[in-house]
Amino acid sequence: MRAVTSWLSRIWRADALSAFGLAALLLLIFLGIFGPWLPLGDPTQIAAGPRLGPPTLQHPFGTDELGRSFLPRVVQGIRATFLLSAVAVLISAVIGTLLGMAAGYFGRAVDIVVARGADILFAFPAILVGLLVAAVLGPGQVSAIAVIAIATLPLLIRVVRSVTLSVAGRGFVTAAEVAGVSALRILLLHILPNVMGAVMVQLTYALSIGMIIESALSFLGLGVQPPEASLGSLLRQGSAYLTIAPWMVLSSGAVLSLAIMSVNLVGDAVRDALEPLKGRALT
Fold this sequence. Notes:
The chain is built from ten helices and no strands. With 283 residues, the chain is mostly helical.
């Protein structure tokens, strides 16, 4: 815990962009978690204000076509977008780490099967996968999680496989093999700790990709379904009233852009902390 606190304080002092990204990300996460208990209003209350009303002190983000306050709906959208993306990325991280380590360590047939499978998944656009999954499972949150996991899985497999290939040839792995240590123990105790840094960096970028995919799916009506809201579904809702109520698109679009930017900035900070010689401070 002390190491994490020291790392966060070092980021805050040394890199203004990363500090801004971290602050913005923490704010969005706070709103997403505690939004239902904050005095922002009910996101489902109809006629809370005038239909398509402009931003006011009572409704800072205006109201939608049903008179619902748009601010609590944006906060609800933050929670849905972050939660779905995080769950999907964690699933792909676990599967991708295991498959990537197996491909890099065992090689030969395992490497060929895993690498070619990742290439096949990588060849399909996320929207096409979303259409196929929605046709099988139906539109909704489960479909969105499945599509994000499928889209981010080959990226994680490639990264973990590459790092595993470099670690598997080192002396401490060879010594463990000579000593008769089982392959499972070598993967868990010797290789996994050495690939976790790369996994953590890739997780942050995969999260931003996941939010983009989730928003695109919800915008097309394949993700979060009404009356629940995500940032993508709010963009779709606001696009129908762009000329008369632009604040609906501007507010949800600005929050989505801020979320993606903050995750990428924090990802840069994580990369710089793990690979200081490649960081922005020395370039």
